[in-house]
Structures are given as C-alpha cells and as structure tokens.
C-alpha cells in the first residue's frame, strides 16, 4: 500500500488511539492534535514505548484559527495531508429541557464545526493532488437518536450530511468522503454513562458486549486503500447490530 500522510483529530482518545496505531501499522505517517500538553506527552511516551512515532501538534479543532494553524504545522512537519479522520468529539449529555446554551454549543463546535474547521484547510490540496480520504467518525446516536443527547445526535447526524455533500463535490478529484458510525465502544466516554443506564444499553446490543476501539479502527482503514476508491458517501455502521438502518 502507498504510504500516506494522515491526520487524525482527537488521536489521544479511546477510539483515536486505535485509529492512529492502525494507520501507523499500515505504514502511513500519522499526526494528531492535542489540547492538554501534559496528557499528550504522556500519551506520546506510551506510544513511543510501543514503537510508534506519532507527530503531535497543539490545537483545538473547535476553533477555525487553531485548526488552520495545526494543519499547516502538520504540513510543515510531515507534508501535505492525504488522509483526514475527523474523530475528535465530546459529550455533554442531558435531557433537552435542561440543556444550557453552553452544553449545546460546546458539542456542536467540537463535534460538527470542527469538521468544517479541519477539512477546509486540507481539501484544496487534495483536489490539486487528485487523491484524498476524508473520514468522519459519527455515531449510532446520529442515526437513531438517543435520550439525553439532542446536542450530540444533531452534531453526529450533521457529520454525515457533510460527508454525502463533500463526496459529490470531490468524487472527480480522486477524493472519497465517508462516515463510520460506531456504536457503544468501551472507552472513557461510554464508561462515563451511569452504570445502570449503560447496562440497559448493552442489553440492547445483539452481540451482547461493548465494541473495542480496534473494531472501529478496522472500519476506518477499510476506506483508505486505492481499492476502496469506488466507495464514497457511505455510512459504515460498526455497532454490534444495535442499529441496522439502511
Ligand atoms: N427512554 C425513556 N426514558 C428514559 C430513558 C430512555 N432511554 N433514559 C432515561 N429515561 C427516564 C428515566 O427513567 C427517568 O424517568 P423517571 O424520572 O420517571 O424515573 C428520567 O428519564 C430521568 O430523566 P432526567 O432528565 O432526570 O435525567 P437524568 O438527569 O437522570 O439523566 C441522562 C438523563 C443524562 C440522559 C442519563 O440517562 C444518561 O446519561 N443517559 C445515557 C445517554 C447516552 O447514551 N450517552 C451516550 C454517551 S457515549 C457516546 O455518546 C458514544 C457514542 O457515540 C455511542
């Protein structure tokens, strides 16, 4: 497989770490962003000990200015970005009648506006070079909705609307744009859901268990090789059968 330059947002998180490792294992050069210096350096050391050399760049994807700066920094360190994985995301779960403007805006800015902020600085280069992969990490809850997640589900559904529009605009330029929609994965984000609520959710998953971050990284990697160039605008569910919409 041709070695590419990949930028994975939120790469230090649960799913992000697995994506970063998988892309590196496939021979790509991988960068990610961070906000918290100390956490990021610890993460980098842990990965270094496992043999991974991942480029870290500071910047908050919810800020258009910081996103542009961090993309340019990755370009300076590694070269033009061929693969962008929009993975960074947060939750601020609460029922809508209690939701504050801050809880709404933080989730929309970090999970959805980030997709604009990050993709805008890389798309022209991909079009010029006639090759690119843009992959959104959405969620099962963008497909089916979720009690307590009006903000998150709106952002995650919006990500796929972005995917299918960008896919049309860029198909002639060798760029594919796809979404992966993970179900409930055993990350800190899901473990933060109160235990009794979480147990009820797991009981609704046909496989009878939470997914692993590696199972999402596998789905992401599927979209990358040249053999996948006919697949664009897809939404790949990886959710243990919890939601089977088509
Ligand atoms: N359907 C119907 N009723 C529900 C419900 C559901 N799914 N969930 C909760 N309720 C009911 C409760 O039974 C309770 O009813 P009573 O008051 O009659 O007993 C009531 O709602 C509680 O409502 P509150 O507004 O008081 O809720 P709360 O403040 O206790 O917390 C919550 C509500 C924050 C939504 C909490 O239930 C929660 O955290 N739920 C999990 C949300 C979730 O799945 N988040 C996913 C995080 S991981 C992720 O996002 C990754 C990914 O992509 C999958």
TrEMBL record:
Keyword GTP-binding: no
GO cellular component, one term: cytoplasm
GO MF terms, alphabetically ordered: acetoacetyl-CoA reductase activity
A Pfam family that the UniProt record links to this protein: adh_short
Gene3D superfamilies: NAD(P)-binding Rossmann-like Domain
InterPro entries named in the record: Acetoacetyl-CoA_reductase (IPR011283), KR_dom (IPR057326), NAD(P)-bd_dom_sf (IPR036291), Sc_DH/Rdtase_CS (IPR020904), SDR (IPR050259), SDR_fam (IPR002347)
Keywords: Oxidoreductase
Matches recorded under PROSITE patterns: ADH_SHORT
SMART domains recorded: PKS_KR
Gene Ontology biological-process annotations: monocarboxylic acid metabolic process; poly-hydroxybutyrate biosynthetic process
SUPFAM superfamilies according to UniProt: NAD(P)-binding Rossmann-fold domains
Alphabetical list of CDD domains matching this protein: BKR_SDR_c
Family membership: Belongs to the short-chain dehydrogenases/reductases (SDR) family.
Name of protein: 3-oxoacyl-[acyl-carrier-protein] reductase
